[in-house]
Design goal:
Blueprint (H helix, E strand, L loop, with lengths): L3 E2 H8 L3 H9 L7 E2 L5 E3 L1 H15 L4 H8 L3 H36 L7 H28 L1 H12 L3 H24 L7 H17 L5 H13 L1 H11 L3 H15 L6
Antiparallel strand pairs: 1-3, 2-3
């Protein structure tokens, strides 16, 4: 069995001796043994735990959370590492795609190639598609079936650039209208501005989901307020309360004032 002094483990791992002593104090990483004169010694098991600590720190987890994970089962530790591996792999894939798109754009500036209009926006469409699938792809597949969702994604990928540009403009307009409606406090759901905000969202959804129905729209509104990812998306862009307001608009114009949706 390997036996490391605190200074040796510090050099091996790149973690300072002071940090190792702190980890000991808070119970995050205890030494394998402490000599009579107070010297700490670590073995292979402690080195493994320190490696895991450094991984979880790199993932941005606080020390309290790391302690909880490491004090659980080996299976939980493995699953947590596996989850973050998958997340990093997805981030790398997204970054590689962005770099490739940017390289093509730079090549056009330098006269090395030409990009048609579809190619200019292919990355942004794929990126939006991936974000949408992460947010509600699983729920949509459960509700409408994998083939329907696949058809929707195919429609999005093949969408003409003029339509994609209009949808992006509609979303920006929606955020602006939600922000303005929030300032009215309370917002008048029957106003022309409110109806326009609903219509912008419906137009976006109708293009993104070929299976659009008022029931689906209302279900999506419910998911917006129950899923913190959606709430953060709309509230950060349009202001606190924007997600709930959007749900209220969806409910109003798909149920109590259905003629406005035709």
């Amino acid at each position: 069995m390997m036996k490391y002094s605190i200074s040796t483990l510090a050099k091996l791992s790149g973690v300072s001796s002071r940090t190792l002593r702190y980890y000991d104090e808070i119970g995050l990483l205890k030494p394998a043994a402490v000599s009579e004169n107070g010297y700490r010694f670590y073995g292979t098991q402690e080195a493994d735990r320190l490696q895991q600590i450094l991984y979880f720190k790199a993932f941005g987890l606080p020390l309290e959370t790391i302690t909880s994970i490491l004090d659980s089962s080996e299976t939980q530790i493995h699953h947590t590492l596996q989850y973050h591996y998958q997340q990093l792999a997805q981030q790398r894939q997204a970054l590689d795609a962005l770099l490739a798109a940017l390289a093509d754009t730079l090549a056009t500036y330098e006269g090395e190639k030409e990009m048609n209009d579809q190619e200019k926006f292919a990355y942004f469409k794929e990126h939006t598609l991936a974000e949408n699938d992460t947010l509600y792809g699983e729920e949509a597949r459960k509700t409408y079936g994998a083939q329907t969702v696949a058809d929707s994604q195919k429609k999005w990928q093949e969408m003409p650039q003029t339509v994609f540009a209009q949808l992006s403009a509609d979303e920006e307009s929606l955020m602006r209208l939600l922000k303005e409606l929030l300032q009215e406090n309370p917002a008048d759901l029957s106003s022309e501005k409110a109806q326009t905000a609903f219509t912008k969202h419906k137009q976006w959804l109708s293009q993104a989901a070929p299976f659009y129905t008022p029931d689906y729209h209302r279900g999506l509104g419910e998911m917006y307020v129950s899923d913190p990812r959606f709430t953060a998306y709309y509230d950060q862009r349009a202001g606190t309360g924007a997600t709930l307001l959007l749900k209220q608009l969806i409910d109003y114009y798909t149920r109590t004032n259905s003629s406005a949706t035709k």
